[in-house]
Amino acid sequence: MLNPPDSFPEDELRALLANTWELQVTASAYAPVGFGSHHWSIRDAEGGQWFVTVDELPGGPEAAAERLRELRNALSVPRTLREHGHAFAVAPVAAPDGTVVAGLGPGFAVSVYPHLDGDSHPWQPWEGADPALRAEALAVVGELHAVPRSDWGAADTEDFAIPQRATLDAALAGRLPDPAAGPFAGPAGDLVARHAALLGRLLAHHDALADAARARPETFVLTHGEPHLGNFLRVRDRLVLIDWDTALIAPPERDLWDFELGDPAVQDLYSLRWDLTETAVYLGLFSRPHLGDANERASWINLADTLANLETTAARIEPSWTSRH
Predict the structure, then answer these.
(1) Banded model confidence at residue 253, pLDDT cuts 50, 70, 90
(2) What is the pTM of this model?
(3) In terms of Cα–Cα distance, which of 20, 103, 17, 1 is closest to 58?
(4) Among 90, 70, 134, which residue's Cα sits nearest to residue 243?
(5) pLDDT tops 80 at residue 85
(6) Exposed/middle/buried for 123, CB within 10 Å: 0-12, 13-18, 19+?
(7) What is the pLDDT of residues 98-127, one digit of tens each?
(8) For helices 196-214 and 165-172, angle between their N-to-C axes, nearest 10 degrees
(9) For 159, phi and psi rounded to 5 degrees?
(10) I need a surface site. Which of 13, 126, 131, 136 has the fewest CB within 10 A?
(11) Could you say which DSSP state residue 89 is in?
(12) In sequence order, what DSSP letters do the residues of 205-222 get, joined into one string?
């Protein structure tokens, strides 16, 4: 993210790090990297360097508690993988009591990682990446998918639900964001309304594909969820995977669709799922009070780009599914 959350209690973050991870912070700096979670680079009193991730939790105690549970289960995966010798996983640091994710007030979840000296990569589609790098990353994904069930940690199983779908369904039914919510509420509602027919068709097709995939649990493996180029680091001459907050037990195509590999129908499911989820999440963001900060301006651009992607996806897959029905 490009800036920290409004009125973020950084003093409370320092206290949490001291009380839970026994890290006495002497210096900290916000790290504007990635998009979705917030990050701080910190140094402790003993000279150690750490990378702290802060995830915003949804509003309401039940929704926040459920997301915190999901994060704890997902981040148990890289922790367990490392404990069983799988060196491709970058895992959060466990606190002395075993905690890998701690709640900070009602709205945030915190995890801590070792500082790694390595080479990162900007996000780009795998089709445009260096072929040797693509092959190396695909080998890491294959290694992950071959991990035995005993090493899966507490991973949840894919439920094929689209996060914040209720917001999207409401918009398609004509209940658009209140323009008074902020500068992007009205434009976001108008943009989604112009794509309502397309979104309705794609949601129905997504649901049919999900039903078919759900009926084949024997194909499920341990998946990362977002093994795009930006989530790989080169550390000591090997690629490792970061950002495990979306880890799930799921069809392998959950990781393979962006490599254009696997069952074509399940590839289509996850291609649709990605962009429909982005649409729902950004619409949810603009349905809530907002001021138009740098993160929200970037989110507006992402929403427009996502709907353009869905137009392209529909042009590619609609003829084939129409012919099958």
Answers:
(1) very high
(2) 0.91
(3) 103
(4) 90
(5) yes
(6) exposed
(7) 999 999 999 999 999 999 988 988 877 898
(8) 140
(9) -110, -5
(10) 131
(11) B
(12) HHHHHHHHHHT-GGG-EE
